[in-house]
Amino acid sequence: MKRSIIIIILLILHSFAFSQQDSLCDCPKVALVLSGGGARGFAHIGVLRVLDELGIKPDYITGTSMGSIIGGFYSLGYTVKEIEEITHTLDWNKLLSDNIELNKIVMDEKKESDRYNITFHIRDHKFKLPAGVIEGQQIVSKFKELSWALPGNTKFDSLPIPFHCMGVDLFSGKTIEMKSGDFTSAIRASMAIPSIFSPAHIDSMLIVDGGVERNFPVQEAKNVLSRTAVLSSIVDSREQTKGVDVFIKPNLKGLKFRDFTRSTTFADYGETAALEKYEELQKIAARLKNCKRKIKKIEQPEKIKINKIDVKGLKNLSKEFVIDYSDIEPGQYVSKEDLTKSVELIYGTLHFTKVSYTLLKDSLQGYTLTFNVSEKTKALFQLAFYYNNEYQLGVRNNLALRNILVPNSRTNLAFNIARSPSFCFVFNKFAEKRQRLSSFLFFDALKDKVNLFTSKYKLGSYHRLSTNVGAGIKYSIGLNHQVKCYIERQSTRMFANDVGDYMIIFKDFSYHKTKLWSLNFSYKLNTTDDLYFPKKGFIFTIKYKRLGNIIHNSDINQNNYDYNTFNKFTTDNFQSLYANFSHHKTYFNIISTSLGFTVGLHSRQTGFWNDYSMGGISTNTNNNHIPFVGFSYGEIFDSNIALANLELDIKLYRNIYFSAETNVGFTSAELNQMWTFIEHSSFDNYIQGYCLGFKFDLPFGPLRTMVGINNIDRKMRWYISAGFPLY
Prior knowledge:
Blueprint: E1 2-9, E2 16-17, E3 20-23, E4 29-34, H1 43-54, E5 60-64, H2 66-75, H3 80-89, H4 92-95, E6 118-123, E7 126-128, E8 132-134, H5 137-146, E9 154-155, E10 163-169, E11 175-178, E12 180-181, H6 183-190, E13 195-197, E14 200-202, E15 205-209, H7 218-226, H8 237-240, E16 246-248, H9 263-275, H10 278-287, E17 304-312, H11 319-326, E18 333-334, H12 336-347, E19 352-361, E20 367-375, E21 379-388, E22 392-402, E23 409-417, E24 422-430, E25 437-453, E26 458-477, E27 481-496, E28 511-526, E29 537-554, H13 564-567, E30 574-587, E31 591-602, E32 612-614, E33 625-626, E34 636-638, E35 640-653, E36 656-668, H14 673-680, E37 687-698, E38 701-710, E39 717-723
Helix pairs in contact: 1-3, 1-9, 5-12
């Protein structure tokens, strides 16, 4: 009789095992059964080390969750050493997220790409949370690379080692044995842990992690080897382990299922557990001595020909939009890198929650490429929470609408509930299918508190209400360049602070109001990889404004005061130029540096209503504010400014950084004094600020705890912030 041996690797509540059947041939059939367990599933690799050393090659593999990943790629012909190298070098924090690098996101969406803690999908006038925290965009993309060119209608029994994986259909509650179709989709479905990963849509089923019902698919292995009927009832874990030949259970107490950075440690534990069963495994290896077969890895050509392109899953967008963004045309030869890039280009539009592809061989010695997409809902409501020690707690609320007001449009309505409340409305109408050219309208309003200083005096504390409305056109050149031209109506009202933080030095002052029109031209380049912790890339912004038709309305009696800040209320037209540059680079994957400069110039002295302000670590470009460490927010202001910035971040542990930053700069009321200052001033005459502390890259947003000092008053200032910035 035939003898069948099942090797089982079980994790979480249990760990590893084997089963036997009689055989009519001298060569036993070996089945490898791998369970789920999150990162602890890396212990499977350690067991495979021992099996490989003994020359035990399975004839069949079943797997669930992490077991389906390790077993799946082993079934493709990857060696144990290759699998170990892959799992050790992969960035699991990146893979277990849906984020892509900032430089792969279209320019219009960069600022909104990673800004919110909670996103509600609005369907049928109801707010709905996603079915899982992670869609699996990154991990599916990586699995596609590793299983490159495998057709989407593959029968898994035809793989170098036959392979099945397990899932559970949420609609029927039945255990699903996935044995054909798209290999990556099957693995993704098997690992869809409820509430963590969103369920996978396969055919008419909604599939989640097989561990929900069948974490140890022993019976499925027996069924294939004996060709008996599949059990219709659920067999519990304990019953599944009955009758196995070798049961291997590594001691993984104290090791977390989320610790994906310790793959080698888990593998070592698995190897130790397998070695404890070495004698039993040796007996199996001896019986297989004359039955050894060589496992040939799946064919992975350098390039394949795409004869046809299709798109599935669209509801609102056109097929042409997706295909055009893919940068692939029928008749083109593509590599796996080309397809990975195509998926990133499509996903980087932020129109989709997930994007993948399948390949089907055709009769013309080529492939049909199908992009599988899942569109975001037309309406999203998003929330972000933020705290800093100067402006306290704030909440950003954003309503994002796509193609609702008119076709090919995007609308954002955001309002911040904070000590400095604000509102912003932006409407974009795209003019062509790649949505590079658009016209736009905007309106924003901000009310904040402004502390006015001179080098010797604190002039007082005022409230400022700023409103801006305008319209223009913009064009995105590729993903990382954008030019804009727009007109803007600005209104600024400064009025006395009723709170009375400081004595107001102007008698009977209550308000000063300025209105003006401006014509604006700007260019922006951003090739950085992250909004908050960039490791590489450049940022360059240059903005030119011509301001005119200026109207002032104030109850300040200028004849009584001789302060330049207040008595230069020009009504003449003037111009401004703003430029900002920063270069980010990382060394040895540990030390990150940022070097940059900012220059803001006015053709004439403007007064406090349009001055540049510097100080603190927060940015608000709407009000000409520029960060400058060592000072409080807005502590420095003048008509013209120039500064340099140097920042050093040292990675201490995972997402924890030690940070040091310095700013050096100067200001001038008149433009012609800028060069004079540079020529005749020593370094001690420059404004200098320094700070150091710690930064944390956390799921709810960046956390910073810094302390700063400057060379003017030499007083320490603390900067504490948590969450995604509001402005």
